Amino acid sequence: MSDTRQPPSASDLFAAHPRSFEHNRYVYPVVSRRAGGVSIGVNLNLDKVCNFDCIYCQVNRSEPAEKEFVELGRLAAELDAAIELVTSGRIYQQPKFSQTPPPLRRLNDIALSGDGEPTTYRNFDEVIGLCAEVLRRHELDDVKLVLITNASMFHRDRVRRGLAMLDAANGEIWAKLDAGTEAYYNVVARTAIPFWRILENLCDAARARPIVIQSLFMRINGEPPPLTEQEAYCGRLAEIVADGGQIKLVQIHTIARPPAETWVAALADAEVDALADLVRRRTGLPVTPFHSR
Ligand code: SF4
Fold first, then answer.
1. Residue 172 Cα, ligand 1 centroid: separation in angstroms?
2. For the whole model, what pTM was predicted?
3. Which tens digits make up the pLDDT trace of 68-118?
4. Engineering a disulfide at 49: which of 65, 164, 165, 246 sits with its beta carbon 3.0 to 4.6 angstroms away?
5. How far is Cα of residue 44 from the mean position of the Cα atoms in its chain?
6. Each residue's pLDDT tens digit, 155-166
7. Exposure of 233 by Cβ count < 10 A (0-12 exposed, 13-18 middle, 19+ buried)?
């Protein structure tokens, strides 16, 4: 029988970010809007638990995290194979990637993200070292190692060591900040980790190296973030800078994939743009808006 499935369109490619690929356990390539190319994701959170329970997350979580060690040998082998698949171009022969537009047929980054918070792993620093070593071995100096994080664990020694190794590998921290007030943070993140801890960690990290702030705003029960919240958010960014932190970019996202809760929804493009403008005016920082699909 012939295969009658249609290859995905370019917009489907952006929307579909499954964390599984072939028989891999940890590594999955995706065509990424934010990357403007192919991003190889490294998912350390196979148990699908996280120390946040964001209302917009794609995965529902309610249990405390069970932390296991990552199998480094297997992770290295999967990363090697995925890099070879993308850089050789063989990946675009697969139906899932065959519609990738030519300008996006490039490996942009290795991103530690996935189904939970990557810094909660006990061998996080070893994972960073391994990813950096694989990139070195493939002589991919222009491919970034990106840590996508909620910044909740930066104060832990192992994570500090991992962040220093990320710096040495010319990597980048993309850290989440989705609120300006504690009350709104509690609504969005649903975690026991206090807001002050996140702000302090962001500030410390940004003092040590320039970081990217990744923020997501949405409609909650039909309501966009109140203007007071938007102003408070700008104030938090300004505080980080005033405290000596370096923010190289602020990304303003909205919901692009089905969220955990049915009562949250994407902002309109104009609302995302207006918030991005506000942040630029209030902080003077570079801002990139990302619309919903
Ligand atoms: S921090 Fe990230 S992975 Fe964790 S619940 Fe929030 S969006 Fe999901």
1. 18
2. 0.89
3. 678 899 999 999 999 999 999 999 999 999 999 999 999 999 999 878 999
4. 65
5. 13
6. 999 999 999 999
7. buried
Count CB atoms within 10 A of the CB of residue 119.
26
> 161 exposed, middle or buried (CB, 10 Å; 0-12, 13-18, 19+)?
middle
* Ligand 1 atom 2, closest CA: 116
Which residue's CA is the nearest one to ligand 1's atom 3? 116
**Ligand 1: which of 43, 53, 57 to mutate, most ligand atoms within 8 Å of CB?**
57
**Segments in the chain below pLDDT 50:** 1-11, 13-15, 63-66
Distance 202 CA to ligand 1 centre (A): 16
Give the alpha-carbon dihedral of 37, 202, 120, 54, to 10 degrees. -70
Testing ligand 1's pocket by substitution, the residue of 52, 147, 253 carrying the most ligand atoms inside 8 A of its CB is: 52
Read off the tokens for 245: 């932190």
User: Hey, what long-range contacts does 135-144 have (CB within 8 A, 24 or more apart)?
Assistant: 135/110, 135/169, 136/169, 137/80, 138/80, 138/83, 138/87, 140/83, 140/87, 140/107, 141/170, 143/107, 143/108, 143/109, 143/110, 144/108, 144/109, 144/110, 144/170, 144/171, 144/172
Q: Where do we find the tokens 């969220």?
A: 259
Ligand 1 centroid from CA 221, angstroms = 20
The CB of 178 under 6 Å from ligand 1? The reply is: no
Question: In angstroms, rounded to a whole number, what is the distance separating the alpha carbons of residues 276 and 250?
Answer: 9
Alpha helix locations (H) across the chain?
10-15, 72-88, 124-137, 157-168, 182-189, 195-208, 227-242, 269-283
